[in-house]
Specification:
The chain has one domain. 76% of the residues lie in helices and 0% in strands. It is built from 2 helices and no strands. α1 packs antiparallel against α2. The longest helix is centred in the N-terminal third of the chain and has 31 residues.
Length: 82
Amino acid sequence: MTKKRIASTVIGGIIVGTCCVIAALVIAASLGAAGVLGAAGTGTAISSLTGAALTSSSLAAIGATGAAIGVTMGNTIGKIVE
């Protein structure tokens, strides 16, 4: 593999990874705002939260499974780009 190809693969991976993180935040907040995720640890309905509290609670409700799905998607897309 040439240095140019390695560099483009690394840059592609960084871009895809960043997009996956941003998408995960948006998806989690959307699910939380829609009322799909129930209540936060404090008992407050996630759908009633806004801003950082909404995003944080939504990501916590999705948990490790949601994070694993995001990582898997990022890795798969990275392999396709490669």
